[in-house]
Design brief:
Layout: H1 3-7, E1 22-27, H2 37-47, E2 50-57, H3 62-87, E3 96-103, H4 106-116, E4 121-126, H5 137-147, E5 152-156, E6 173-178, H6 188-198, E7 201-208, E8 212-217, E9 220-225, H7 228-251, E10 256-262, H8 265-276, E11 280-285, H9 296-306, E12 311-315
Parallel strand pairs: 1-2, 1-4, 2-3, 4-5, 6-7, 6-11, 7-10, 11-12
Antiparallel strand pairs: 5-12, 8-9
Helix pairs in contact: 2-3, 4-5, 8-9
């Protein structure tokens, strides 16, 4: 089944589809880029996926090649130790890890490799320069996200050495952001597939933007916020919408709750993720989600830049790629 067929699937017709058989972890030789490794370990261990460690180099030559291969062998041993520590059994019984080296522009090589090798998920660090002569992680991650059809997990590199990993696991609570549109629901097949296999708790959230009365005056155009009573039908509609999705997920055996918030989407998502201690935020991206609704690229970008939580971005079906 090709990727075009994959994104066109009905959001509740994924049973038996193994999307995450291969997880791609791009690396550039720096500790900062390795912040994604604990997430790769947990995903691969729980999903039975293969981890591909992709070293993208801008240089060629035997000397550099040997250095790159030595680096990847070291990272593979780090991954294996992480697996054995987390799952309590030999890594060979739990995950498969393979190295790969490519040369060229980092973003282009990552996107091309993911497409050619039918990668299910790209998992990478972002935000910050990862070392002299290495990638600028924020720029590369941004280009990859705009250019690939594959789901991408982005993890803010606040420090080196896998900062943010938790002893109890890194993907136990998943916050799913929806806005009531079919485009935002592109994330739901992923939740159907991932949540039961990760044994993760799912929290659904919809942010209802504050509405205003607009009026003309001598000084120009003014606006007055809707009162709580005026906002109530919008909030009630959002609760009804989330309840239907919550019921469908619960019928599949997924532990799920939902909440509606009023305010600016990105700010409320960031605040709510911190409140519920979410391990990851899942959002659709790249495409206008409906008249008067969010432009997901804008909202998801702000959640990533200003939030404290890794984010899984799922491209909406039919959205343009660069």
């Amino acid at each position: 089944m090709g990727w075009v067929d994959f994104v066109a699937l009905d959001k509740y017709e994924w049973e038996g589809l193994q999307v995450y058989e291969r997880v791609l972890v791009p690396l550039d030789g720096s500790e900062v880029s390795e912040v994604s490794l604990p997430y790769a370990v947990e995903l691969a261990g729980k999903l039975g996926a293969m981890i591909t460690l992709l070293y993208v180099s801008k240089t060629t030559g035997d000397t550099f090649r040997h250095m790159q291969e030595f680096y990847l062998r070291r990272v593979i041993e780090t991954v294996k130790r992480g697996v054995e520590k987390q799952f309590g059994k030999p890594a060979a019984e739990t995950v498969r890890v393979e190295p790969a080296v490519v040369v060229g522009d980092p973003a282009e090589q990552i996107v091309d490799y993911a497409e050619k090798e039918n990668i299910g998920l790209i998992l990478m660090a972002t935000h910050g320069r990862s070392g002299v002569r290495r990638w600028t992680l924020g720029s590369v991650a941004s280009k990859v996200t705009r250019s690939t059809r594959r789901p991408v997990v982005l993890i803010r590199a606040k420090g080196a050495g896998g900062a943010g990993a938790r002893e109890h696991g890194v993907l136990n609570k998943v916050l799913v952001s929806l806005d009531g549109s079919p485009e935002s629901e592109a994330v739901l097949p992923h939740i159907d597939d991932l949540a039961p296999r990760l044994k993760a708790e799912v929290v659904l959230v919809q942010i209802v933007e504050q509405a205003y009365h607009v009026f003309a005056s001598e000084g120009g155009v003014g606006q007055i916020p809707f009162t709580d009573d005026e906002m109530k039908p919008l909030v009630d509609g959002a609760r009804t919408y989330l309840k239907k999705i919550e019921d469908k997920l619960r019928d599949k055996g997924i532990k799920v709750t939902s909440e509606v918030r009023v305010g600016a989407p990105a700010e409320e998502i960031i605040k709510f993720a911190d409140e519920v201690k979410a391990d990851i935020v899942v959002m659709a991206t790249h495409g206008r989600s409906g008249i008067g609704r969010w432009i997901f690229g804008s909202v998801s970008g702000k959640v990533l830049r200003e939030g404290n939580t890794p984010i899984l971005l799922v491209r909406t079906p039919g959205a343009r790629i660069e």
